[in-house]
């Protein structure tokens, strides 16, 4: 159930088509849908304004397909799937409409949302190796109807590449800075941007990077004000939070 469904129920009560007791029963009987292996939170759209997202890692192709199908049947037009294995795509596509981006491992079941010019979220990636995580953030933000501008390969090893885009940074409402290695990009952008900056450490780097831990600690210890940090490789979390900030 999403906000439109709830509004429809309230309109039916207002017009006399539905009694208050029947409306209450209709709302309370579907707090979640039990598939046995998963309990779909059908009222998340009412509470948070956005439906549940499927985390694909660790799930089978059958589980992903059944959850997405159930959500579409319940009235969702689009369902976001993160960390989806490329080997599952053909199986799911045979059963439900699916868009898939192999770089970010993002899948969208049902309708692909149209691009929007709402606000301006800048996704900055330090290096080409950071693009998969950056694209997860970008496609997530676009899924939630945001205007996304991509700045890729603008890391501190060639900082002039970033400074060539100062106007774009200055015009952003929120910036997502994606970087591995030492993770310095978030601090640099935080020092020149007037908007909130979301740092995303990636697991890109040599041995002492410790799978993204060094970048995570660097971002957490940033001396630039206005920088917050999500977990290692969590492009989805950054894109979702950026969307919330952009729509305030």
Structure description:
The radius of gyration is 20 Å and the shape is globular. The chain has helices at 3-15, 20-28, 44-48, 61-73, 89-93, 131-143, 160-163, 166-170, 185-192, 213-220, 235-246; strands at residues 33-34, 39-40, 54-55, 78-82, 98-101, 106-110, 121-125, 148-152, 174-179, 197-201, 227-229. It has 248 residues and is α/β, with parallel strands linked by helices. Helices cover 38% and strands 18% of the residues. It has a 5-stranded parallel β-sheet, sandwiched between helices. A 4-stranded mixed β-sheet has the order 3-4-6-5, sandwiched between helices. The protein has 11 helices and 11 strands. Helix 1 packs antiparallel against helix 2 and helix 6 packs parallel to helix 11. Strand 3 (54-55), helix 4 (61-73) and strand 4 form a beta-alpha-beta unit.
Descriptive key words:
248 residues; alpha/beta; four-stranded mixed beta sheet; 11 strands; globular
Distance N terminus to C terminus? 23 Å
Mean pLDDT: 89
Main sheet specs = 5 strands, parallel
Order of neighbouring strands in the sheet with most strands = 8-7-9-10-11
Q: What is the 3D form?
A: globular
> Which segments are poorly predicted (pLDDT under 50) over 5 or more consecutive residues?
none
Percentage of helical residues? 25-40%
* Total DSSP helices: 11
- Cα Rg: 20 Å
Quaternary structure? single chain
**What is the H/E string?**
HHEEHEHEHEEEHEHHEHEHEH
Proportion of residues in extended strands: 15-25%
How many β-strand runs? 11
Q: Structural class, judged by helices and strands?
A: alpha/beta
